[in-house]
Amino acid sequence: MKTISRNIEFEVFENPSELPDAVRVLVETAVDAARNAYSPYSKFKVGAAIELKDGTVVTGNNQENAAYPSGLCAERTAAFYASAHYPEQPFQRIAITSISNDIPSDKPVTPCGACRQALLEYEQKFNADIEIWLAAEKGQIIRIKSVSDMLPFSFGASYLE
User: Which end of the chain is more exposed for a tag (fewer CB within 10 A), N or C?
Assistant: First the structure.
């Protein structure tokens, strides 16, 4: 038997003024997307903004449904739109943020497992890391180098070959 350790490195920014300009704008775009989320049940609005390699920015937000499994998260809404409209453009980075109608959030929101898996597919498709920026209404912003860092034991196309 052997023990294998895997560590993840990430950066923490104390406020938006510390961010590179392009990232700050991307986070603000994700906030705007969150404001338009359809979340009548959870009251938890999530927005995502994806910057493609050519500089195009695509947004998405969570879309809830009374039949809960029929809803869709912000990250996948944005990713599927980007892939449908810009199928040859790699994703460079994604900003994800949340707004709560009830309790102001100061914890950066992270993608659920299904969204991590979906984003990983695009990272693998283009063989390029997707930088992840996690934010909330206020407080710290986290940068993670790649989706694969968030999903170390992932399932991918190689299992289907």
Answer: N
pLDDT digits (tens, 9 = 90+) for 86-127: 999 999 999 999 998 777 778 899 999 999 999 999 999 999
Cα–Cα distances in Å, from 71 out to 30, 34, 127?
19, 15, 29
Helix or strand (DSSP H, E) at 82: helix 74-85
Residues 6+ apart with CB under 8 A from 103: none
Catalytic residue among 9, 11, 18, 75: 75
Give every strand in the sheet of 57-61, ordered side by side: 10-13, 141-144, 131-134, 91-100, 44-52, 57-61
What are the pLDDT digits (tens) for 122-160?
999 999 999 999 999 888 999 999 999 999 888 888 888
Q: Is 75 a catalytic residue?
A: yes
Start-to-end CA distance of the chain, whole Å, equals 29
**8 A C-beta contact, residue 144 and residue 110:** no
